Amino acid sequence: MGRPARHPRRDRRADPDPRRPGPALSTTPGPPATPGLPEGTRPSPNIWHHTDTYEVENHAFDPDGLVEAAIERLGGWAGRDVLDLGCGTGFHLGRLARTAASVTGVEPHPDLRAIATRRTRRTAGVTVLGGTAQALPLPDASIDVVHARWAYFFGPGCEPGLAELARVARPGAAAYVIDNDASRSTFGAWFARGFPEHPAPEVKREFWAAHGWRREPVLTRWSFDSPADLEAVVRIELPGPAAEQALAEHRAAGGGTEVEYAVDVWWRRF
Ligand SMILES: C[S@@+](CC[C@H](N)C(=O)[O-])C[C@H]1O[C@@H](n2cnc3c(N)ncnc32)[C@H](O)[C@@H]1O
C-alpha cells in the first residue's frame, strides 16, 4: 500500500470548546472504574470531552503518512482481518478498510462508538463493537493485525490487554501499538513536562522488550490549518500550565502551524 490519502480538510476547524481540567491520557495502571463505562476503561478526556478538537488533531497528525509507511514496511494489513482497538470515533477505520479483508473497531465509550458506527455505515467490511482491551468481544484466533493508536497500551499495567491480544491473534498475526515517545521531539518534550507521572521512556522500552515487542521509532509532525487549531489541540493534550508554557515557547520560536512529533510503533508477531 502506498502513502495514505489525506482526509478532506474542510469542516474541521477546532471548536472553541471549554477547557476542562485533567490530563489528556490516563497513565495510571489499573484505573478505577469510570461510571457507566466497562471496568478497565482508561479515562481519555481529550477525545471524550473535546471530540471535535480531537478530530482536528487526528487530521493534523502525520500528514506524510510516516506511521502507516512504517507499519507497511513491517507487514501492513492488506487482505487481513484487522482489529482497531480503542477506535474512538472510528477515524482510522475507513482507511484501514480500504485494503483490509475486514476491520473490527472495539471501543468502550458508547458515544464515541455511535460516531464510529455512523461514520462507517456505508463502508463495507467494517464492524464496531463495544469492549475493552482487557475483555475483547472476539473469538480466539480470529484476528491477523491489531492496530491500537494512543489507546490503553501505555506500558506497565497493560498486561491483561496483552494476554487478550495473544488470545485473539491467529498464528503469524501482527500487532502495532502507536504511542508517544517522550524522549524526542518538540511534542515529546512538552509531553514529558506535562505528565511527569507517565512511565519514563526507558521504563516503557524495558516493558515492551520484556514482553517480546520491538520498537519502530517514527519522527513525524502535526500540521494544522491555523495557529488557532494548534492552540486548541495543545490545550486538550496538556494540563493547563504545561499547555500555556508550550504555546509560549512555540510562539517565541516563530509560531506557525507545525510541531515536530515523535512516536514509537511497538510491534510484535504471534
Ligand atoms: C486517545 S483516544 C484514541 C482513539 C483512536 N485510537 C484514535 O486514534 O483516534 C483513546 C481511546 O481509547 C479508549 N479506551 C479507553 N480505555 C480503553 C480500554 N481499556 N480498552 C480499549 N480502549 C480503551 C477511549 O475510550 C478512547 O476512545
From TrEMBL:
InterPro entries linked: Methyltransf_11 (IPR013216), Methyltransf_Superfamily (IPR050508), SAM-dependent_MTases_sf (IPR029063)
Keyword list, A-Z: Methyltransferase, Transferase
Lineage top rank: taxon: Bacteria
Stretches the record annotates as Disordered: 1-47
GO molecular function terms attached to this record: S-adenosylmethionine-dependent methyltransferase activity
Basic residues composition-biased segments: 1-11
Pfam families (alphabetical): Methyltransf_11
Boundaries of every Methyltransferase type domain copy: 83-175
Protein name per UniProt: SAM-dependent methyltransferase
